[in-house]
Design goal:
The chain is mainly alpha-helical. The protein is 77% helix and 1% strand. The chain contains 19 helices and two strands. The chain has a two-stranded antiparallel ribbon. α5 packs antiparallel against α6. The chain is globular and about 75 Å long.
């Protein structure tokens, strides 16, 4: 029987995604930044379908409705990207193209989510299966690397010339960061397809990967996600409202909280009461406190419109140094970015950036509430949000495209788990 063009396209699209999922574990182990081009390749099957374009742009042109939270959220996201472009006119380096670093992952992420929500039942099952295997497999390899001090990266070129192979070890931690939000939908899919014990095992693999690699923020993010999942199973609607409201609250209040940090008192107490060996272990976190306080002190000078996209990188060239307890040498109060995305938005994009992103959070939460998500999917959404917010608050930068691509990967997993749940519910009737 000869296949039609549409059937051939769909067959090749799914084979393409199979191949990409097989590559994903090795992508995060040997080059975490590769998650961004991986997302671009994963979006091609959606872009090859005409009904995707109609679904995406029909909202903008055919039936625009500001009362529709999906349409309002889309406008908020587009304005946020537009404001990044506009801020390039007064940013020190005039980086007009930085808006693409946010717009592209947003559009690509939307395309893969749409694709996963519009699959026939058999292919939902198959793609959900390989998605979960790719995420858990990636975490397993990262756990192996963490427990063996990066054996695979050491065996394969190029050699890492940095002291104690710090570049390799940090890169492995970033690989965990790229997969951490997607771990929760992957574990849910595993529990649905195999068993609850298998799902808990998948989570355990991620926990080992987080704790064995050298980025403490990963352990905090996954722990926060796990706590959020457990709480949401007990009270799904309330937990979802608290989580989304909390994210908006953090966006608004972070500069105030950071400005109130008594840095001199904190550092003095650390030096007086904490052993030097522990000061050294936690010097990076102490440094973050100084960075956040410094950024919060500068935010007011740039209001209402901010200093412009990528201002922090320029500021870093002339920023003053500060003595941090446990650090071997004075450190800058502004490295390449503030290690806090919410503070970075206040600093560089001002009130228009904060308001448009806050509205995107708000309308996005309304879309999810209107979808009447089943409790497991709701729990996974809150877990993903908790892990992402922790990462944004303690280490992320808005201009790291791979981080935005990692969020899209997690959203893809949520969409697959939701579709799988809905189709199985219909089948069981």
């Amino acid at each position: 029987m000869q296949l039609t063009w549409k059937q051939q396209r769909e067959r090749w699209s799914r084979a393409w995604l199979y191949g990409l999922f097989m590559l994903l574990p090795w992508t995060v182990v040997f080059g975490h930044k590769g998650v961004a081009p991986w997302l671009l390749l994963a979006s091609l099957p959606a872009f090859a379908r005409g009904d995707f374009w109609q679904a995406a742009f029909g909202q903008l042109f055919d039936k625009p409705d500001i009362g529709n939270p999906f349409f309002a959220g889309m406008l908020s996201a587009l304005f946020f990207c537009f404001w990044i472009f506009i801020s390039g006119f007064w940013s020190p380096e005039h980086h007009y193209s930085l808006f693409l670093w946010v717009l592209a992952p947003a559009l690509l992420g939307g395309s893969v989510v749409w694709y996963c929500l519009n699959l026939p039942q058999v292919w939902t099952y198959r793609l959900a299966t390989i998605f979960s295997l790719a995420i858990v497999g990636g975490m397993a390899v990262l756990a192996f690397e963490g427990l063996t001090d990066g054996l695979l990266r050491a065996l394969l070129p190029p050699n890492d010339p940095s002291a104690d192979r710090s570049r390799d070890i940090i890169a492995l931690g970033r690989g965990v960061t790229a997969l951490a939000p997607a771990l929760f939908p992957a574990a849910l899919i595993v529990s649905m397809i195999w068993s609850r014990a298998a799902g808990l095992g998948a989570l355990a693999v991620g926990v080992v990967a987080a704790f064995s690699n050298d980025v403490a923020a990963n352990a905090v993010a996954i722990a926060a996600g796990l706590v959020a999942v457990v709480i949401t199973f007990k009270a799904p609607k309330t937990s979802f409202l608290v989580a989304t409201g909390g994210a908006i609250g953090l966006l608004i209040l972070t500069p105030i909280a950071a400005a109130l940090l008594p840095i001199e008192v904190i550092f003095a107490n650390l030096e007086a009461h904490v052993p030097e060996v522990w000061q050294s272990k936690f010097s990076s976190w102490s440094h973050r406190l100084a960075i956040w306080n410094s950024v919060a002190g500068r935010v007011g000078d740039g209001l209402p419109f901010g200093f412009g996209a990528d201002y922090a990188r320029v500021w870093a060239q002339a920023a003053p140094m500060i003595d941090v307890p446990g650090a071997k040498a004075p450190l800058s109060v502004m490295p390449l970015h503030p290690h806090n995305v919410f503070l970075q938005i206040w600093l560089e994009l001002g009130l228009p950036g904060v308001l448009s992103l806050g509205l995107f959070f708000y309308f996005g939460s309304k879309v999810l509430r209107g979808a009447a998500l089943p409790t497991p999917t709701m729990a996974v959404c809150v877990g993903v949000l908790a892990a992402i917010v922790v990462s944004l608050m303690v280490e992320g930068s808005l201009w790291q495209v791979w981080r935005l691509a990692a969020m899209a990967l997690a959203a893809m997993g949520v969409a697959l788990s939701y579709s799988l749940h809905q189709q199985w519910k219909v089948k069981s009737r």
